[in-house]
Design brief:
The complex is a heterodimer of chains A (511) and B (241). Chain A has helices spanning 2-20, 53-56, 83-92, 106-117, 392-395, 465-468, 502-508; strands at residues 67-76, 100-102, 121-130, 136-145, 149-154, 158-159, 165-175, 180-189, 201-212, 218-234, 247-265, 269-283, 289-291, 297-299, 307-321, 332-342, 352-364, 370-382, 390-391, 426-427, 429-445, 448-463, 481-493, 496-501, 509-510. Chain A has 511 residues and is mainly beta. In chain A, the strands form five sheets. Chain A has a 15-stranded antiparallel β-sheet. Chain A is elongated and about 95 Å long. Chain B has 241 residues and is α+β, with helices and mostly antiparallel strands. Chain B is built from four helices and ten strands, in the order H-E-E-H-E-E-E-E-H-E-E-H-E-E. In chain B, the strands form two sheets. In chain B, strands 6-5-4-3-8-10 form a six-stranded antiparallel β-sheet, with helices on one face. Chain B is flat. The chains are: A mainly beta (511), B alpha+beta (241). Strand 24 (496-501) of chain A pairs antiparallel with strand 9 of chain B, so a sheet runs across the interface.
C-alpha cells in the first residue's frame, strides 16, 4: 500500500517535472518512500494524471455559489457569425432563457469550449449581469472571431514529364457566418511532354453544413469535381526508365459529385456514408500496345473505358481518433476504415469493391520523444477505373502524389531492393508499413508552438491479380516491394502547420 | 540511379539540418524562472510561503466578477537540486465565485485531502490573495529530506484548467474542421501534406499558467522569512460550512 502510494507521488512529481520542463525524471529511489502528509490522495485515481487538470482542480461537491435564473442571452463581438448559431450551441447545453444556471455550473466551461471548437473564435467569454428581478441574470457571451480561411494544401511541383503543375485547396470554414464550410481546390499544369498528353486541370468545389442539432448531429457535405487530364502508360523501354517518350497518354475528363453524410459518435469515432456519381469521357491513344525490351508486344491495359462511361459508388467510413494532438502526437491512435463499391444499380460502368485501412499508433517515449507506427492496407476486387486504384506515388513518400486525383509524373518507385516494383504504377492491392521516430525540437517558443524532427522508414508493396499467380519461381526479386521513408521537421505554428522534409522536396522536384 | 543520388543528396542535407536542430533538443523547453520563496521547517514539515498573485492579469481579474466560478490549481513539489529527483508533491485548489446580487466573493479551497475552507470576502484582491498566496504551505515531512541535501521547490499555478480530453478535442476541431469530408487514401496520409495554413490559436491546458522554481535550500538551514501572511483587507468574513 505504501509502495503504491509512493509510486503515485513519484508519478505526480514526474508529471510535474515534465510540465515544468525540469530535469525531473523517473527514479526508483523515491518509489518506495511513504507519501508526504501534504500529498493529495483521492481514492484509487492515479495521481500522475496531471493532464486532467480539471479533475485535479475539482471539488467533491461540485455546486458552489448562487444559482440564477437566465432571463436573456446576449451575444457580443460576433461581427460575422450568426447569433442563432451561437444561441443554438448554448441551447444544446440547456443554457437558454428560463433555465437556471449555477455560478460553478460545469455547462459554462463546456459551452465555452464547445464554441471554441467550432473553429470560428479566438476566445469566448461567458458572464452574468443582474437581471430585472433579484435572482435573475442576463447571460452574456462575448466572442472574439478568428480568421476562418484555411489553405489546406499547396500543389507546386515539377517532374520530368510535366514541367510545372500547381494549385491550392482553400476552405472558408464559416461562410456567410452560418458555419458553412465552403472549399475550393484547383490544380493546373503545363502540357506534359508525353506523346498525346494534354495539360491537366482539376477543380473541386466543396460545401459542408454544420452538424444538424449540435456537434454530435448529422453533417452533410457535397463535393463537385471536374478533372481534365492525362494518365501515362508505358509503351516502350525499361520499367525503371521514366523517359516521357516511352509513354503514351490517355485524355480523361471526369465530372461529378460526392454527397457525404457524417456523424460524430462517442469515444472519438466518426462515421460517414457517401454517394458518388461521375461521368467519364476517355480518349485512348492510337498506340494501344507496349513493346517489351525483349522485342515482344503486349496490349496496354488503360484501366478505363474508351468513350463515355460512368462511375457510381456508395461508400461507408469509420474514423477513430484518440491522438494526444493532431499535429505532434505523442500518444493514442488514428484508425480510418472505408469501404466503397461501384455497381450497375448505381449506374456505374465499373463494378468493384474497394476497402482501405489507414492507421497510425503512437507511443510516448522518455524525454518527450515518440514512436509512431503507420499502417496502410487496401484491396480492390473487380474492375475499378485507374483513378480509384492504388497509385504508387500516393504510397511512396519519395514520389509525386496525385494532385486532386491527377498524376503528372512518369517516375517509377526508386526500387532500392532491385525488385520488380518499377513495373507497378496502378494496382488493386497495396500495403505500407512505416515506423516513425519523433524528437521535440521546439516547445512554447512564441509563434512556433511546437516542432518535431522526425525520421520514418518503411516498406511498401503493390500488386494486382495477375501478379499473384505469375508463372515462374517466386523469389525476393519478384516481390513488388520497395523501401520508403522521410526525414524532416514538422512545425505547429500560429499560422498553420508546415512539414519540411526530404520526401516533400523529392516529391515536388521529381527527375 | 539518378533518383537514388537525388534521394541520397536530399537526405544528407536534411539530415544535417535535422541534426543541428536536434542538438537544440535540450533547450526545447524554456526553463522555469527562479522566484525567492520562504522555505522553513515547522512542526516537522517543510513549508513554503510564496505568492502567485501574478496568475491573475488584468483580464483575468476583470473576469473574476463574471458571476461564474474561477478555479485556481497550485501544485508544488520538492526536487533534489542536482538530480531533479522528485521527493513530494502538494496541491491546493481554490474556487472563487462572485455573487452579482450581493456583490461579494465566495471562496473555497482545500489543500490535499484537507478539509474545505470557505470564506466570504468583499474585494477581488482578497479573493485573489486567498487563492494564490501560499503561507506555510506544507510540502513534506522534513525527515524525508537528507540533512546534507540541497533541494528546490518547483511550483505551477493554473487558472481554470481544462481536461486533457477536452483540450485534444478542441485542438482537433481547430486543425481538422472538415473531418470526415475527405475521401480516404494513402495520398491523404499524415506524411503527405506539405503545408496547411490557418489561424491556429494556442489552446493551453489552462487559461493562464505560471511556473517557477524556488532558490535552493538545505533542510538544516531555513532560508528566508515568509512573505506577508495576512490578506490585503483586514475584514475577513467566514461562513459556516
Amino acid at each position: 500500500m505504501i509502495a503504491r502510494a509512493g509510486a503515485r507521488v513519484l508519478a505526480v512529481a514526474m508529471a510535474l517535472g515534465a510540465a515544468l520542463g525540469s530535469r525531473a525524471g523517473a527514479t526508483e529511489s523515491a518509489a518506495g518512500e511513504p507519501p508526504s502528509a501534504a500529498t493529495p490522495n483521492r481514492g484509487d485515481r492515479a495521481e500522475g494524471d496531471l493532464g486532467t487538470d480539471s479533475d485535479a482542480a475539482s471539488f467533491p461537491d461540485a455546486r458552489f455559489g448562487p444559482r440564477y435564473l437566465i432571463e436573456e442571452v446576449v451575444i457580443r463581438g460576433n461581427r460575422k457569425t450568426a447569433k442563432s448559431l451561437i444561441l443554438g450551441e448554448l441551447a444544446a447545453l440547456g443554457l437558454a432563457p428560463g433555465a437556471s444556471v449555477d455560478a460553478s455550473d460545469p455547462r459554462v466551461q463546456a459551452a465555452r469550449y464547445r464554441l471554441l471548437a467550432l473553429g470560428f473564435f479566438l476566445d469566448v467569454r461567458l458572464s452574468l449581469t443582474r437581471g430585472a428581478k433579484r435572482g435573475g441574470a442576463i447571460l452574456a457571451v462575448e466572442v472574439d472571431e478568428r480568421g476562418t480561411l484555411v489553405i489546406n494544401e499547396l500543389f507546386p511541383a515539377t517532374s520530368q514529364a510535366t514541367l510545372f503543375w500547381g494549385g491550392a485547396d482553400v476552405s472558408e470554414t464559416n461562410f456567410l457566418g452560418r458555419g458553412i464550410n465552403l472549399g475550393v481546390g484547383f490544380v493546373a499544369s503545363t502540357k506534359p511532354v508525353v506523346p498525346d498528353a494534354h495539360a491537366g486541370l482539376g477543380l473541386r468545389l466543396r460545401a459542408g453544413v454544420p452538424p444538424l442539432g449540435g456537434p454530435n448531429g448529422l453533417s452533410l457535405s457535397l463535393t463537385g469535381l471536374f478533372n481534365d487530364g492525362s494518365e501515362f502508360y508505358r509503351a516502350a523501354g525499361d520499367d525503371g526508365d521514366p523517359a516521357p517518350d516511352d509513354f503514351v497518354a490517355t485524355r480523361v475528363r471526369r465530372a461529378g459529385g460526392l454527397l457525404t453524410v457524417g456523424k460524430m459518435l462517442p469515444a472519438g469515432l466518426h462515421a460517414s456514408i457517401g454517394l458518388r456519381e461521375e461521368e467519364i469521357t476517355a480518349t485512348l491513344p492510337p498506340l494501344e500496345a507496349r513493346v517489351l525490351p525483349g522485342g515482344g508486344v503486349v496490349p496496354i491495359d488503360f484501366m478505363i473505358r474508351g468513350g463515355a462511361s460512368r462511375v457510381g459508388t456508395v461508400s461507408a467510413g469509420l474514423d477513430l481518433d484518440t491522438r494526444s494532438d493532431p499535429i505532434l502526437p505523442r500518444d493514442g491512435m488514428r484508425i480510418a476504415l472505408s469501404v466503397e463499391t461501384g455497381d450497375e444499380i448505381l449506374g456505374s460502368s465499373y463494378g468493384y469493391l474497394k476497402g482501405v485501412l489507414d492507421a497510425s499508433f503512437y507511443r510516448k517515449l522518455p524525454h518527450g520523444h515518440a514512436l509512431g507506427f503507420h499502417v496502410f492496407a487496401g484491396a480492390i476486387g473487380g474492375d475499378a477505373p485507374y483513378f480509384d486504384r492504388f497509385f504508387v506515388g500516393d504510397l511512396n513518400l519519395l514520389l509525386p502524389r496525385r494532385a486532386l486525383g491527377i498524376n503528372f509524373s512518369t517516375q517509377p518507385s526508386p526500387n532500392l531492393f532491385n525488385t520488380n516494383i518499377a513495373h507497378h504504377r496502378y494496382d488493386n492491392y497495396a500495403g505500407r508499413l512505416l515506423v516513425e521516430y519523433a524528437v521535440p525540437i521546439w516547445r512554447h517558443h512564441g509563434l512556433v508552438y511546437g516542432g518535431d524532427a522526425f525520421v520514418a522508414v518503411g516498406l511498401l508493396g503493390m500488386a494486382s491479380d495477375g501478379d499473384l499467380s505469375a508463372p515462374g519461381p517466386v523469389s525476393a526479386r519478384t516481390l513488388p516491394i520497395d523501401v520508403t521513408g522521410d526525414l524532416g521537421l514538422r512545425l505547429d505554428t500560429y499560422v498553420g502547420v508546415f512539414t519540411i522534409s526530404v520526401a516533400n522536396a523529392l516529391s515536388r522536384a521529381s527527375f | 540511379m539518378d533518383t537514388r543520388r537525388a534521394v541520397f543528396a536530399a537526405a544528407s542535407v536534411t539530415a544535417c539540418l535535422v541534426g543541428v536542430l536536434a542538438g537544440r533538443t535540450a533547450q526545447a523547453a524554456d526553463p522555469p524562472p527562479r522566484r525567492q520563496s520562504g522555505i522553513e521547517v515547522k512542526n516537522g514539515q517543510v513549508t513554503v510561503s510564496v505568492g502567485l498573485q501574478d496568475l491573475f492579469g488584468p483580464a483575468e481579474r476583470q473576469h473574476l466578477s463574471s458571476g461564474f466560478a474561477t478555479r485556481v490549481l497550485i501544485r508544488a513539489a520538492i526536487q533534489d537540486e542536482s538530480s531533479g529527483e522528485p521527493i513530494a508533491l502538494a496541491v491546493q485548489r481554490t474556487e472563487i465565485v462572485y455573487d452579482i446580487w450581493d456583490e461579494r466573493f465566495e471562496v473555497r479551497s482545500t489543500r490535499g485531502l484537507g478539509a474545505e475552507q470557505r470564506a466570504v470576502v468583499p474585494t477581488a484582491d482578497e479573493a485573489i490573495w486567498r487563492a494564490t498566496a501560499l503561507v506555510d504551505f506544507p510540502l513534506a515531512e522534513a525527515k524525508r529530506l537528507r540533512p546534507d541535501g540541497r533541494y528546490v521547490v518547483v511550483l505551477r499555478g493554473d487558472l481554470n484548467p481544462i481536461s486533457e480530453d477536452l483540450l485534444v478535442e478542441v485542438r482537433r476541431w481547430l486543425v481538422q474542421p472538415a473531418r470526415g469530408e475527405r475521401s480516404l487514401g494513402a495520398g491523404d496520409s499524415f506524411f503527405g501534406s506539405f503545408v496547411s495554413i490557418f489561424v491556429n490559436p494556442r489552446i493551453e491546458d489552462s487559461e493562464r499558467q505560471i511556473r517557477f522554481v524556488s532558490q535552493p535550500f538545505a533542510p538544516g538551514s531555513p532560508t528566508l522569512p515568509t512573505p506577508r501572511s495576512s490578506p490585503p483587507r483586514s475584514k475577513i468574513g467566514g461562513i459556516p460550512r
